[in-house]
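Design job #97: recover the sequence.
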């Protein structure tokens, strides 16, 4: 009887050990999602561009240099 309890405890410990790393992978995925570029609206022509390609001028997003220049 004592051996059976010990066996269950060992199996539980092994099971727990293999399941544990999963939440760490979930945190990594969340971080990658935050690094992804978001779509922003051009303050001049209202065109949506990715935040990586957008030009930021006076705290506003613009799709191109022309739009940033014209909106002065
Ligand atoms: Zn524009």
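Job complete. Output follows.
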């Amino acid at each position: 009887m004592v051996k059976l309890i010990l066996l269950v405890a060992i199996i539980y410990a092994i099971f727990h050990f293999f399941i544990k790393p999963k939440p760490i992978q979930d945190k990594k995925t969340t971080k990658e999602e935050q690094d992804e570029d978001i779509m922003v609206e051009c303050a001049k022509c209202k065109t949506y561009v990715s935040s990586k390609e957008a030009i930021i001028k006076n705290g506003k997003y613009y799709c191109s240099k022309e739009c940033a220049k014209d909106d002065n």
